Every structure is written in C-alpha cells, then in structure tokens.
User: What shape does this take?
Amino acid sequence: MTLARYAFIKAAWHADIVDQALKGFTEVIPADQVDVFDVPGAFEMPLLARDLAATGRYAAVAAAAFVVDGGIYRHDFVAQAVVDGLMRAGLDTGVPVLSVSLTPHHYREGAHHADIFRAHFVTKGREAADAALMILRTRSRLAA
Assistant: This one.
C-alpha cells in the first residue's frame, strides 16, 4: 500500500509564526509524507494550491498564512480572497484544500502576541492534519 502524500504551502510573511503550523501538521501526519512549498504571502497560496491539487499527487493540500490588520483596508480584501481562492481550488480539483490562515483583528508586533500566535498555529496545523485524515476516511467509506 502506498502512503498518501500531502502538500503544505506556507507563506513567508511572518514565517516565524506561520512555520509553526507545519510543526503541528507533522505531529499528526509524518513529515516524510509532506511536501512543503513556500510562497511570498497569503495572496499567492490559492493558485499554487490549485496547481498542486491538480497534479493528482496529493491526498490533500494545506495552506498556512498570517494576514494581519496593519490598519489599512487591504487586510480584509486579502483575507477574503485567500479563503475564497483556497475553497475554489478544492472545489475545482476535487482535492481537499485546507486553510490554516489566521486573520486576527488585534495583532501587535511584540513577543507576547507572537508567542500566542505561534502556539495557536501549532494547534491549527494539527487540526488541519486531523481534518485531512477525516475527509480521506469519509471519502474512502463513500467509495466502498
């Protein structure tokens, strides 16, 4: 039996925080089953997610980013575009595409907030891996 492979996309913006999602993901799904892809920021994730899902190599694709409110309107547009794009990538390809993209309204640069979100990204990474496995089990039962 061939083990399933998973794609994990992570945005480089706030990498010290975002990379923690991969840590959580690989606590559930072994790292040797996960191919990791970096993109500059959240906005670039949906296109790559669609392309990776369309290859047929991956049982699921997870995408992690941290879209913070820097006091300008762009935050809301980016967050909505990313979530919509990731959902569309999954619907268009039939491959589960999971979002580990967080968009806090009250993030402030500093050790306290960074520590909170690092821990939260580990948790969200685990949850994305659990969701991927649950979807695969359900789809397997449906196919049987």
Notes: The first helix runs from residue 15 to 28.
